[in-house]
């Protein structure tokens, strides 16, 4: 058995949109498609349902009032939805709240009852069809729950046969009987809203700028003997460490009391860079702290 649910688009887009924008219509279409698929699987001669009204053996319609000339001598199944009520789940029904945007999400449980009207000119046939509908709802309720219902088909009730003057239009002879099957159902509803004209941070922009250090003095003295260079009154001398411990580089600035070499930095802040270290297994090396040759 399969449900004949109408579909528009791929991946059940019609079902999702109908349950989102018109949940009550979606619930009604679920019950109609469930029984249409149920009686479609029935063989000929056992209330077989067909989309063609001239070939079908039972009329299944979502309209609560149908015409007698359409039915003829065939039985019919119609549906009447009873009132639904929002059932609270907690304080303010709040499911989630966003402090930054003020968005509030609420959830509620909506219980209701669907009445399945099983009509026939024969009283016993009306009861027989009602029993089939109630038993199949109880037996295959998982199929309806997979379509979005939270709870359905539990503890259905079957009423006593009664005249269906309000169900069959034009029944002047009062020959139609109806047996009502009451099926409770529940579905949950989740909605959210955001306050208007509220300032919300849309994006964060980050920019990084660097400045190149001005060029150092164009004159660099290199001392390989290890002796300290002579100081000058006009220029500031500075010893620059190199990665080669055997070499000592001395630089002076073109202006008095100005550092000839500026440390590497970003945005005016110096970047700490550790001194390089070269290890040798043998040979003469120079101690950069005392400027003396060591072996």
Describe the structure in your own words.
The protein contains 5 helices and 17 strands. It is an alpha+beta fold and 295 residues long. The strands form 5 sheets. Strands 1, 3, 4, 5, 6, 7, 8 and 10 form an 8-stranded mixed β-sheet that branches. Helix 1 (13-21) packs across helix 2. Residues 6-11 and 216-233 have low confidence and may be disordered.
Structural key phrases:
295 residues; alpha+beta; eight-stranded mixed beta sheet; three-stranded antiparallel beta sheet; 5 helices
Describe how the helices and strands are arranged.
Layout: H1 13-21, H2 23-40, E1 59-60, E2 66-67, H3 68-71, E3 76-81, E4 94-97, E5 104-120, H4 123-139, H5 141-145, E6 151-152, E7 157-158, E8 162-163, E9 168-169, E10 177-193, E11 220-223, E12 237-240, E13 248-252, E14 265-266, E15 269-270, E16 285-287, E17 292-294
Parallel strand pairs: 1-3, 2-9
Antiparallel strand pairs: 3-5, 4-5, 5-10, 6-10, 7-10, 8-10, 11-13, 12-13, 14-15, 16-17
Helix pairs in contact: 1-2
